[in-house]
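Annotated sample (chain length 1349).
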Amino acid sequence: MYYSVGWAKILASGVSDVGIVKQMKCHPLKDLVIALTENALILWHARLQVVLGCFKETKLGRGRNREFAVRPDGRGVAIAVSGPEDDQGSLELLELTFTREKSGTHTLAHCSHFQSSLPCGVEMDQLRCGCEIGRISFEVTCSKSIPGNIFSLQSIHGYLMVSSGSGQLYLLNWLGVSEEGPFNVSALSLASDLLPHSSAHPLCDEDVTVSQVDHCNNLNAFLCLFSDGRAACFVSGQSAQFSLRHLVGVWIPDVHNTSCIAINGRFCLSVVGKMNGCVEVFSLEETTGAWFHLHTLSIPTDLYPQGLDSLGPVTILEWTDSDQMVLAVSWANGGVALWTVYGSLLSFTLGADTEHTPSALKTHRTRLSCICWSKGSYSLWTAPSLTSEEPDQIYVLSFIKSSIVNNPTTTNHMHILLQGSDRLHLQVSTSVVANSNKDDTPEVGSAIASTPHWRVLQVPESYLVLNWPIRYCCINSTGHMLAVSGKAGMALYSCISRKWKLFSNEQQEQSIVCCGGMVWWKDIVVFPCIVNQRTVEVRFYSLHSKLDQSCLLHSLKLICPVEKINLHGDHLLILSTNCTLALFHLSRHKNQNGVTLHISKCYEKSISAILSHSSMAISIMTSSLRAEPEERGDPSNEEHGVESILYNVSGKLLLSQKLQNIDINNHKNQLSFGSPICLASQVEVVWTPPTSDCRDNHLLLSLWLHVGAEGLKVWLPLFPKANPQPTFLSKRITLTLETNIYPQVVLFGEAVVLGLCQEVMYLPEARSSATQSATAAPFPFATLERSIQPFLHPILRQLLKRNLGMHALEVAKGCCHLPYFTHTLECMLHEVLEEEAPGKLPKPDPLLPQVVQFIKQFPQFLKTVSSCARKTEVALWNYLFAAVGKPKDLFEECISSGNLATAATYLIIIQNLETFAVSRNLATRLLECALEERLWDLAKNLIRYLQAIGGGDVPMATPKTTPNTPFSIPAFSPVESGDKAREGEGAASPASEDGGRPFKGPQFVPEAHSKVAYFIDLLLSRYARKLLSNMQVRELGNFAANLEFDLISWFEKERCRVAKIDNCVKALLALHQDFQWPLPLKEEDPVERNTRDAVSVTSYHDNSDRLQTSISESGSESLQRSYRPPDLNLMGVSNLAEPPPSADQVKQVTLQIVENPVSLLSWQPQHSESSSDLDQVSNLSGSSSFKLPHWLSKLPSKPSEQSEDELRYLLEVASKSCCLGWVFLCAVLIQDGHTIRSLVERCDQLPREQADTPIVIANLIRTVEEFIQWTYEECHGYQCIVQDCIQVHQVLSGLKPQSPVASRLPSNSSEVLSQCDTATLPQVFTPESNFNSQSETEMEPESSNCVLS
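Output written by the structure step:
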């Protein structure tokens, strides 16, 4: 509503001996603030905040000024002066004259009794700035003596009503002539109401005087405060009928010890400040004329623990100047608070961090003598009440207010738009602004994800020079078009181009004055205005054309000025000052001359019966809502889109529903509306849904109201089921929701409310005294922050409490797509649990069972319960789980439904309710499931959890250094960059200081070999075997990287079991598919390549010893990456489902190649008759023997750096663990010939004391043979490295028992060799006898589904 921003400003007139400021008022027509001090009258400019003139009395023996009144036309001022003695006072009347000079400067005239001056350092040229004040002259026209001091002075209907200390009332005109003689206050007649049968009685107390009077033009009444602390309201009637002798007053009931009063004519309220610091608010009953108590305004103790007693009596009550929506309250001991009209506390200057409040807050600097709202209520002028170094010092607090205060249109309710005197503060979704080419369909739901920072739009100074301050502003539904209007004209702004558009003709701009507000229709602004102070028009300007009268799209003539304007869809609603309501339909057509608007009147009616004065209309709007949501009116008139009209009259919300169209004289466009019905009272703001597309969505057909201190109210539809029998159930229900923010926007589809909260900060104590002249230490620095409050769970809770569970379920199903729906259910469960569980006595009708049954209808039930339990005290768990079920049962449900993350949250709960053994068993089961689902983060946390609980007191293992692995944690992204990985290619890895292997991750075996740690290691090893047996090598790397599993030691243990290569082709193709590695591509002609390979093979036979030396010397050579054009040289790929070739076939082909390498020049596959590559591909792909796997077509043409880094890391792990078969496959995949050739040296370096050395060598020889055969039969792309493979095979197969490798074999080598397949062993290791292979299950312990106990 109203929010303070920034620091307060400290002003001083600079004129000596003027005394304390007694009273301040805003000039009714000019941008002036008139301040009355004890000895002078000072004129301040409201915008520039400089003194225009100071007039001080020079007569001796003159008393001090008490208060003053301003003439309604602004031409005169009446000053009440206390006499030198208490029994005599005087009234001085001054005439103000404003004349504009040609030079444009401001001169101040002297009179016989006053002297004029300007503050030091302020020149006349600085006061130009377009502020047409002109020459200001004062002249004393009359001075009239009043017996007794003047207690109150008020301007009523062009007269001055003066109350004296002698108990007399005087009615004077502005010439000082008495219109009616002195009237005794004791003769005033007062009653409890204005009914005819109520009798009025005189006051009959000669000692009672009137100490304060506040007048209201809307009600034609004024409020009086008597000296005995009572208050009454008198009806003044029209000015021609105003007479003191015919006044009849109505008592404000039960009011005593009153210190000050204020009246609000727009909302028909009377406000009474009490001596105890409270503020009582009374409302007028229009039918009887009586006043009844509405509510009490007080500072809550949580905001101000000191209480109202420390603040003292209420001294000042001041409503905002233009809209009367906010009340400013001040106390005798300091502090200022702002309340809305119905009791919402907006701000309190003493309410923030009272323990660190500077001491200046408790001194005279916060005790105010008077406050005054400036023009437009954009600043609050305050003056201290005690004498200081500068007695005429004034504090000015700047405010910004919501745009719905002055212009409550439907589109202004969709975005947070605040207006200051010269700028706008906007928060709108960025996606809405970006989608500027779309239609006007609102998209405000995305405002939740938008940035909470303010977008401040400064109105151009060229417009503000003549039109300050801003009066109205509006924004369109999409949030990218704005319009502002000040004293005259208007300015448009586009958020797309970020440019302002002004009138090019200043005369045209000053000739139109906005009245009633503005509204956007698509890209056209609807601008009601008074033209040349004579005619009333509603003009239509386009954003895309010039602001000029020649570019006017349309002009609608009206009889009376517009009071309020609003728009819904294509319907324009206008309320005139004569209380006439008109509804127009807008349409746009394109023709040869451009765009033309067609406006037709659909409805017109006078609403003077419900609206006595047009200013009492707070807002009007059309909507698509009806009291009965299933009745949509006549389908033939569905295109109108208007089902009802809503009126907010003095806080009472009235609804008029559309009736069936009556076709009179074939006027089919005429609409008719029924009599208004009252929906609610004390309404400040109304929100209607932006669309009515969804008829079954409760929230999109609801009506939202803000009712002040009571919070938010929602008028929710209830869709009854089809039932032929009457159910007598209401079709709508009103729910009240508490809120801690003042709402600005209701997002119907998002089920949240956007509001603003104010943050304050005080100047530190040490700097407060040193910077008093520059900043306002008594008042805090204020900022605004956006706040979001969901409203779905309060609605669901209240529906369940009213036994409307089916309707609550329908509402919830319409919102289950929201991302925070689970949090909504959790909040509802938590609130009900906190309220019902602590009670010692059982509640007769608990709500918790209903809430639990309601949440069970959604799949988020298990997660909601676990989240709620973890955020609740353990003492309340028994009450919670008695309603929702046992935690173990909920855990089992999570496991069965696959919701493992939620099941993990129940472990903490079960740990506090069950034994450690139960927790360990459940955690073990969950860990197995997490590994199966590859939820690495969850598995890692479960491992830590198992290590932490151990046997109840076993310490958790200390994790070792994380290995430098390129595998993802948790997603694929290398730990080291590709450049760093390539720098170490081919280089020997540095060994650790203790001689161990580098890159070794932590093992899950703690120092104390507990059963838990052993079982964890066993469980992880078993899962790693499962991955490798399924050829999921890349997933194995992911598993090891995320769970810090030591692959090197594990490969060492498994190199003769699951890490042994059984089928080379199947393993190689699995690596291609797993790492998305393309099959090798042809680089050169096969004949040339074969010839070079054959020569190399011959050279190798002659120089085998030299080759061994060269391999060992080139161990540190870097490996280069090879990229080839995307042209596959695939000769054929065997079906992975086919069995591998027999041992005899492998031996025959391989020995033929080894014994006669030159025969490769004429070698061709036996099943291929063509020598060309393309013919071979076509023949092989079409045959039944070779079938291309479907995933080959999906492989990329170029491998990724991530895949290469991972393969090189896997090669290094296999090399360190002596898994030579995997070293060979990884080297073949990346075509690393150096690594392939170095396998001979690696075999020579294998320790002879290990029994599995012959098995490793035999498996490597068989792998190389299978690869050579597959390359020359099916995939010619690998022929570039076949020569290296042949060399390795020749060396390994040609080893004699006297060779270094054979000499290191154990004595029982024949028994060890018998464990290998005969076809895979080299000739040197294969005796004539045939050995049977031993199954793998005999070499590794059987894996059983064991559970740690």
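Annotation: The longest helix spans residues 1253-1273.
Annotation: The mean pLDDT is 78.
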